[in-house]
Specification:
Length: 155
């Protein structure tokens, strides 16, 4: 297991992908949770762990993924957001809503959160987008408009 976790930060992309697929096949989120929580671990391995946790969709990862939303690494924040989108859990929904309404610096993260709300419950997400559209925060407004544009385009 430790070898696979180490390979998530390997210089060769093919090695990283093989390790990711093997970790998904193993299906145990606990070593990935520990890796994501370890701020001293290589950034590449941490964000890949966050992404794999989304693929596993195991609620045991919920707390570490929510904590990763404030990580110093934009890649970790991005993939933690993506993984929360896949969990379909009330706490994940609440965390995604908070991301949208707070107007994060890296605009792609709240946009991804907005798409995640759509995926989880389109009807329940509408009030969140309406609130975001009225926000004084420019990033929050742009996220709402971007999600509306996506919905109009994709149907």
């Amino acid at each position: 297991m430790q070898t696979l976790l180490t390979q998530l930060a390997h210089a060769d992309n093919a090695v990283r992908i093989v390790a990711e697929n093997a970790l998904i096949k193993v299906g145990d989120p606990l070593p990935l949770i520990d890796l994501l929580a370890d701020a001293s671990a290589p950034n590449e391995a941490r964000w890949r762990a966050a992404a794999i946790l989304g693929d596993l969709a195991d609620a045991r990862a919920l707390d570490v993924l929510i904590a990763a939303l404030t990580d110093a690494s934009p890649e970790v924040r991005t993939w933690a957001t993506w993984s929360l989108c896949l969990l379909h859990h009330p706490a994940a929904y609440a965390a995604l809503t908070k991301i949208i309404l707070q107007g994060a610096v890296d605009e792609h993260v709240p946009f991804m959160a907005g798409l995640g709300l759509l995926r989880q419950d389109r009807a329940a997400a509408q009030p969140v987008y309406a609130q975001a559209e009225q926000s004084a925060n420019e990033v929050t407004r742009r996220v709402a408009l971007g999600v509306y544009a996506y919905v109009n385009h994709m149907g």
